[in-house]
Design goal:
alpha+beta
């Protein structure tokens, strides 16, 4: 497996992967992924196996909040439980810290138990603090918003 930044010429492959990761992750217009690969390339990573994209994470820096918001994270269903999402999140968090963002924020559908467990495992593995911030409704689906940050001693 190889981990690296997402590239503009991979937009259709990203959309194909996202379509396999429903219902919690949805593919959007290809223009969105063009923006991510061009304007947010420092916080968008893929995992490949045999030149095929099998994992993806994207983050959007928010200067005003000193936070990178995780917009999408997904792993192809055939490759889940291999630590791919944890490695992608590690890359994203590392890039975030490198650019001066010590927090990441995310939302998880309340019924998406596996995603919640994965983010808890990520936080525990890297001695980070995951704290609940609020619940919000997105397109009629309840989502819990969390912040993950370095533990302050």
């Amino acid at each position: 497996m190889k981990y690296r930044k997402a590239e503009e010429n991979e937009i259709q492959s990203l959309i194909d992967l996202l379509n396999k990761c429903r219902p919690y992750v949805l593919a959007h217009h290809d223009y969105i992924y063009w923006i991510l690969c061009n304007c947010y390339h420092s916080t968008c990573f893929v995992c490949t196996r045999n030149e095929k994209i099998i994992g993806f994470v994207s983050g959007l820096p928010s200067v005003g909040q000193s936070t990178v918001f995780i917009w999408q994270v997904c792993v192809h269903p055939d490759y889940r439980r291999e630590g791919i999402a944890l490695e992608l999140l590690k890359l994203l968090f590392g890039a975030s810290v490198k650019f001066g963002f010590n927090n990441i924020q995310l939302s998880i559908a309340t019924e998406n138990i596996n995603s919640h467990k994965m983010f808890e495992k990520f936080s525990d593995t890297y001695s980070l603090k995951m704290e609940y911030q609020k619940q919000t409704m997105i397109s009629g689906i309840p989502e819990n918003v969390y912040k993950i940050s370095k533990i302050q001693i």
